[in-house]
Amino acid sequence: MAKKSSIEKNNRRRRMAKKYSGRRARLKAIAGDKTKPVEERFAATLKLAELPRNSSATQSLRADRPAARLLPQA
Questions:
Q1: Which residue, 20, 48, 60, 66, could crosslink 27 as a Cys pair with Cβ 3.0–4.6 Å?
Q2: Separation of alpha carbons 44 and 23, rounded Å
Q3: How far is CA 52 from CA 19, 41, 44, in A?
Q4: What is the C-alpha to C-alpha distance for residues 52 and 59, in angstroms, rounded to an integer?
């Protein structure tokens, strides 16, 4: 059984990723668009770096899985 603090931390990460997903996607699209001026892409990269660290959707979340110490039931 996971600790309540770990569960709450994962829930907070999920909420933050959902909250910043639109802004992050827009900034990543601007930063990756080679047709935009270099200054605009650089500004988008800086704004992307200012977002909270745990706001990425690819942030590793702990999977809901059984405890590692338990042996599988046969």
A1: 48
A2: 10
A3: 11, 19, 15
A4: 11
Tell how far CA 59 is from the center of its chain: 4
C-alpha closest to that of 47 among 28, 21, 22, 19: 28
Q: Which two tokens stand for residue 70?
A: 């338990």
Determine the distance from the C-alpha atom of residue 29 to the mean position of all C-alpha atoms in its chain, rounded to a whole number: 16
- The pTM of this model reads 0.64
d(CA 58, CA 36) in angstroms, rounded, equals 26
What's the pLDDT score for residue 42?
A: 95
Tokens linked to 39: 């200054």
Quote the tokens at residue 56: 């990425």
Which of 14, 40, 13 is CA-nearest to residue 29?
40
Low-confidence residues in the chain, pLDDT < 70: 1, 58-74
